[in-house]
Amino acid sequence: MFTNRVGRRIDKISALQRMLRPAAAEAGIDWPVGFHTLRHTCASILFAEGRNAVQVQRWLGHFSPDYTLETYVHLLEDGVGMPISSMR
Description:
By secondary structure, the protein is mostly helical. The chain has 2 domains: 1-31, no CATH class; 34-87. The chain has helices spanning 12-26, 35-48, 53-60, 65-72, 84-87. It is globular.
């Protein structure tokens, strides 16, 4: 998913320790940040933009839209289709 300057895959642990967690700390995020956080943020933005479950499923690479809905149904409770600018 992520590559270094020479095109090799970045080690997950290294990326977490050297890049993602320091960036989260600098941003003042006080919960554990991992790669699932990035996927969840992506799903949140897509649903907020009004994308449907099939579109989000394809974007995230899930095997079915049902799985996407089961995983992210809590994003659909309030504010679906609400512009990103109003979420801030």
